[in-house]
Amino acid sequence: MDVMEKLTILADAAKYDAACTSSGVKRRGKAGTIGSASNSGCCHTFTADGRCVSLLKVLYTNHCCYDCAYCVNRRSNDVPRTAFTPRELAELTIQFYRRNYIEGLFLSSAVLKSPDFTTERMIETLRLLRTEYRFHGYIHAKAIPGADPGLTHELGLLADRLSVNIELPSEASLQLLAPDKTKAAILKPMAQIRDGAEQSRAELKLYRHAPRFAPAGQSTQMIVGATPESDRHILSLTQGLYQKYHLKRVFFSAYMPVSDHKNLPAPVGFKPPLLREHRLYQADWLLRFYGFNAQEILDESHPNFDAALDPKSDWALRHPEFFPVEVNRADYEAILRVPGIGVRGAQRIVAARRCGPLTFEGLKRLGVTMKRAQYFITCSGRMLPGLRCSWDSVYRRLAGLEQAGWDGESWQQLSLFDGNVG
Q1: If residue 253 lies in a helix (H) or strand (E), which one and from where to where?
Q2: CB 164 within 8 A of CB 142
Q3: Would you say the C-alpha torsion 374, 378, 380, 386 has a positive or negative sign?
Q4: Per-residue pLDDT tens for 266-318?
Q5: Alpha-carbon span 37 to 47, nearest angstrom
Q6: Which single residue of 178, 186, 322, 344 has CA 20 to 30 Å from 367?
Q7: pTM of the complete model
């Protein structure tokens, strides 16, 4: 095969990998190098299936020695197989960058022969880019569970961000669908990357030219809808990953039927749970930016998200004792919990009320979505004039707003949104 034929196969095989973010590191270009990296991220494009991509997203190879039932590249699947050489992939990346097609590289791979062998090939590709081609731009690489820790460390010194896919939300599901993988093997490199990044930051405080290990941190991805775990289980796992392994992002990928395995949903008539994926992203933002924890977003009596409401509105309607919130006196954390008020809106409210009491008209000018917030706030002790409704009618109105927001949108586009929960 020529390089373009390989690219067609291996770029298409990488489309199911959602853990592709380009922010988190700032590195200016300098004389003798090509490219740079910015905290604000790279320019974005869209793939044929509608997903937002900021980098050249490609596999090193789709030859795999594992037989994961949910994966299109599994050993038993009859698909065209190919692999780049390190030189081919490095040259392709540089040529695309020079033509302004891309801003960086996202490199993943199936497991060719063994985790160590595959990681060595990925390291050689990145070494060519960094040393011979002097590429100074953003690189995100997938660490392969089971690889030697020394190889993972070397990969982290060449890449800006590393990620290890946790794949499925429970060890039981892994044993059922991916018998070659174990929870311990996946979590071990996560801990190594966490510890390596912390050590690197400590060394940089002493010597600013010390080698940087994965300066943009690490992320992971899990498949949603292939196994029976509840949203509460997935969200609790997500919170645990953030707390224990200091991940920058947890990505969710709605299961796409690529197999007729007996333990997977039947592909005939199966619809990818894209709305569920979207709800998980919204809840993920509540964990990271809004001060919520997984146990209060979903509990034993409500283990799954309400399809009709965003998680923040759903929580508000289940906790009427918390409302109404007086916007002129409530603290920042309480204001953040009001549906229709996002992080910027809450910051503006706290700043604006120092100059005088806020009114409902003033809240509109501050960017508050009053169609949602009006049921949960007071201004100077008063509700919005003329507002009289029960919690049941509030539910119906908020559900109607949510449905109206998606009118005309294809379900495929739901996966492009990851957090508009204000």
Answers
A1: strand 249-254
A2: yes
A3: positive
A4: 888 888 899 999 999 999 999 999 999 999 999 999 999 999 999 999 999 99
A5: 22
A6: 322
A7: 0.89
